[in-house]
Specification:
Strand content: 15-25%
CATH architecture of the largest domain: 3-Layer(aba) Sandwich
Shape: globular
Bound molecules: nicotinamide-adenine-dinucleotide
CATH class of the largest domain: Alpha Beta
Number of helices: 10
Largest sheet: 6 strands, parallel
Order of helices and strands: EHEHEHEHHHEHEHEEEEHEH
Oligomer: single chain
Number of strands: 11
């Protein structure tokens, strides 16, 4: 029997609807500031989509654009000013930044209370401590929500996270560990990836290697979450997972597009509202 498809688009819509209602009850609209440095075309699209989604639910946004040749100091000064501004609830630095800019230094400069991306070491540390007051990076937070939409209790399950990026793989592994899963983190140097995958009840893949995860890597009945955004040999959008074959083995699977992507934006919006509420005690 074919796997049940976890519809990230539908779940994200429902979350956004609830967030919109929540905002209507607030005294003032939360404000998210987006910083975009450089000319990366994909980043411009991501930023536009984030601003549009925020506006739809009543989050005010402001975009600060910097030229490719902007200086570290200019960006630092803006972050310092935004940190002090009581009307700003969330600060998002769109990555990647131009090569001569130290992105990590900028992320560390953002007030952790306004770090809606959850990339500040303070929030990463809170997540590691298992504290539920951490701001969690939007993509892994969304992935966990997708898994929990079909499996309430993850205790004792074997999970594998393929990819160890700071924005997805590492926080994802920590979230699953906090849910009492036994977690393997695999990466480009991992040996016997197929065998490790076959042990997993939950597979989360975030590598960018199109259709790498095949049906014979998947244990019957597993839950498979595909974070990857890739192009297949015909230029068609696909994920890390060979969806058509894997769906015949898994119990639950996310599609690309329409799986993790919409949840990432929904979680960013949720993080912004949570930041607003925390700042107002
Ligand atoms: P990354 O691009 O920074 O790094 C890739 C990771 O995959 C590394 O940890 C690497 O070790 C691992 N990897 C590469 N080849 C591998 C292989 N053959 N076997 C095992 N591991 C391998 O990671 P990222 O930023 O998490 O992005 C990964 C993919 O997820 C990209 O396609 C990206 O576009 C996508 N992504 C999607 C969303 C979303 O919202 N849907 C969000 C973030 C990233």
């Amino acid at each position: 029997m074919s796997a049940e498809i976890i519809d990230g688009k539908e779940l994200a819509l429902e979350i956004r609807k609830n967030l919109k209602e929540k905002i209507l009850r607030l005294k003032k609209a939360p404000k998210l500031v987006v910083i975009l440095a450089g000319d990366d075309e994909a980043s411009k699209i991501y930023v536009r989509n984030k601003q549009k989604a925020a506006a739809e639910i009543g989050i005010e946004t402001e975009l600060f654009r910097f030229e490719e040749n902007s200086s570290q100091k200019q960006l630092e000064e803006l972050i310092d000013r935004l940190n002090q501004d009581k009307d700003v609830n969330g600060i998002l630095l769109q990555l990647p930044v131009p090569a001569h800019i130290n992105g990590n230094a900028l992320l560390e400069r953002i007030d952790p209370a306004k770090d809606v991306d959850g990339f500040h070491p303070f929030n990463i540390g809170l997540l590691q401590n298992g504290a539920n007051k951490a701001t969690i990076a939007a993509t892994p937070k969304g992935v966990l929500r997708l898994i929990k939409s079909v499996k309430k209790d993850l205790t004792g399950l074997n999970a594998i996270v393929i990819g160890r990026s700071v924005i997805v793989g590492k926080p994802m592994a920590m979230l699953l560990l906090n849910e009492n899963c036994t977690v393997i983190i695999a990466h480009s140097h991992t040996k016997d990836l197929k065998e490790l995958c076959l042990k997993a009840d939950i597979v989360v893949s975030s590598t960018g290697c199109g259709k790498m995860v095949k049906a014979d890597w998947i244990r019957k009945g597993a839950t498979v979450i595909d974070v990857g955004i890739c192009r297949d040999e015909n230029g068609k959008l696909c994920g890390d997972v060979d969806f058509e074959s894997v769906k015949e083995v898994a119990s639950y699977i996310t599609p690309v597009p329409g799986g993790v992507g919409p949840m990432t934006i929904a979680m960013l919006l949720e993080n912004t509202i949570e930041a607003y509420l925390k700042q107002r005690g």
